[in-house]
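Regression test attached.
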Amino acid sequence: MLTRSQVVLIAALVVSLVVTLFSNQIDPYYLLVIVNVGINVILAVSLNLINGYTGQFSLGHAGFMAVGAYTSAAITLFFGPKFFGAVGSSGTATIWVLFLFALVAGGLVAAFAGLIVGIPSLRLKGDYLAIVTLGFGEIIRVILRNFESLGGALGLNGIPSYTNFFWTYGFAALTIYVVVSMVHSTYGRGFLAVHDDEVAAEAMGINTTRYKIVAFVVGAFFAGIAGGIYAHSVRSIDPRGFDFIKSIEIVVMVILGGMGNTIGVILAAILLTLLPEFLRPIAEYRMMLYSLLLIVLMLTRPEGLFTLRRKAKVKECK
Amino acid sequence: MTEFLQQLINGLSLGAIYALIALGYTMVYGVLRFINFAHSDIFMIGAFAGYYLSKHFPRESMGGGLIVLAGAMIICALLGIIIERLAYRPLRDRSKLNVLITAIGMSLLLENAGQFFFGANPKAFPVLFPVMTIKLGAVVLSSNQMAVFIVTIVVLVGLRFIVMRTKIGTAMRAVSFNPVAASLVGINNDIVISFTFGLGSALAAAGGILYSLNYQAIDPLMGILPGMKAFVAAVLGGIGNIPGAALGGLLLGVIETFFNGSRWSTYTDAIAFTLLILILLFRPAGLLGKAQVEKV
C-alpha cells in the first residue's frame, strides 16, 4: 500500500510528464523561467536539509552544483556519443536513459564530494563550517579552472539541450519527497535534534557527526542533480557560474523561506527566481537588495517570511 | 640562495598584510566569539578611502602617505564601530547562526554598495610613499615592502602595548576571558566591543592600503580573497590569539609565495583552504591556541 506522500510524488511525476508532452506549446522564454524555478527549488530544498533542518551552515552549495553539472555534462558530451552515436541521431528513449544516467552520476559524484568535505569539516561548528564549505566551493572552482580536459577557464560548451519540464519537476518532486520523508521519519528526528541542541542530542546517544554527514551527502546529491539539469538547460557552463554569489543566492532562499520550513523555502525559491525577471530594470541592484534583505530579516524576522508561527523557543543558556 | 631570500622577503611582506587583517578577525572573535565576515570588506573600504584621500595630499612623500594611511584607518575604525552598533549589537543574545548570517549580509552589502558608489572597474592605486629600492647584496627590497614591514612592526608593537599595558586592553582581555564576570566587575562590555571593532577595522584599513600599494589596482571585490586567506591565517595561529594571528599571517604569506614560484602556481588560491582543512583536522585550536573544552 502506498503512503499519502508516495501518492503525491507519483501524481507529481505523472503531471510533469503530461505537461512535458505539451511543453512545445509554451513560449520558450516562459519555459526557461519555469525550468529555472524548478532548479532553484531543488537547490533550496536540498540546502534546507543542511542549513534548515540540521542547523549546519553550508556556504558551498554552488560547489556541489558545479560538480554535478560538470560530471553530467561530461557524460553526455564525451561518453554519450561513444555509446549511442552522435548527438541528435539517437531516439528519444536513448536520450532519456542517457540523461537519467548522467544526472544520477552527477548527483553521486557530488554526494561523494559532499562526503569528502563533510567528514573533516562536520566535526566543526557554525562559523568554521561556513568558512570551510565556502573554501571548498573555491577549491572546486580552482580545480575546474585548471582541468584542461573539462575546458579549463572557458568551461564546457555545446552541451546537448536535454533538460525539459519532466526532468526538472520530476526531480524537484523527488527532492521534496526525500527531504520531507527523511525529516519526518523516526530516523530523521535526529536532524532536528542536532539542530535544536547538539550537546543534548549527543548526550542522548545520537551520533551527531553521522547525522550531519548524512544531511550533507543527501543535500549534495540533489545539488549535483540540479547542476546537471542546469547544465543541460543553459548548454554552456564555466567555473565562474558556480561562485560564492550563487551559493549565497540559495542561502537567501532558505533564510527568506524560513530555515526548516520546506513549503516556505519552495515559495521563496519561486519568488526569488521570478522577481529578477519582473524587475529587469533594477537587476543590477539585485545583490544589494539580497544583502539588505538578509540583514533586515535577521534583525526583525529571523524565522523567515513564510513561517507563520513563531516556534516556542527556550532561551539559549550560555 | 638569493632567489630563496628574495622569495622569503616577498612572502613575508605578503604575510605581514595577511597578519594585519587576521588581527582584526582574531580580536573580534576574542571578545564576541563570532567571525566578522564584513572584515574583508572593511579592508576594501580602507583601500578606497586611501585612494580618495590621496587626491588631496602630496603623493610620493612620507608625510602625505602617512596622513592618507592614518585618515583611512580613522574612517574604517568609525565604519567598524557603526556596523557593530547597527547590525551586530541588536543580535547579541540571539543564536550564533543569526549573527553569522547578518555578518555575511553586511559583507555582501558593502561589496555591492562599493560597486555602486565606486564603480565595478578596477582603479589604479597611486604611489603614496617615495620610491626607492634597497639592495642587500643581490636581494632587492622595494619601498612598498619597506612600508609594509615598518607599518606592521609598529602596529604589532602598538597593539601589544594597548592590549597588555592599557586599561582598555586589560578590559578587552577580561571580556574575552569571561564577558559576564567582566561586566560584574564594572567593565562596560559595549564600550570594549566597540573599541575592539574600531581597532580591528583600523588595522584592516592599514592592510588594505599596503596591499593596494603592492598590487596597484583596487576594486570593490578585492577584499574577498585576501580576507578569506587572512581568516585562514587567524585560524592557523589559533583564533582569538593575537601573536598567533601574526604568526599565521606570516606563515601563510611565505607558503603561498613559494607555491606561487613553483610549477603548481595556478593552484595557489586553493592552498589556504587546504591548509585550513588540515589545521582544523589535526590541530583545531591552531598553532598557538589552547584547546578549549565546551562547557554546557
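Expected vs. actual: identical. Residues 2-282 of chain B form a domain with the ABC transporter involved in vitamin B12 uptake, BtuC fold (CATH 1.10.3470).
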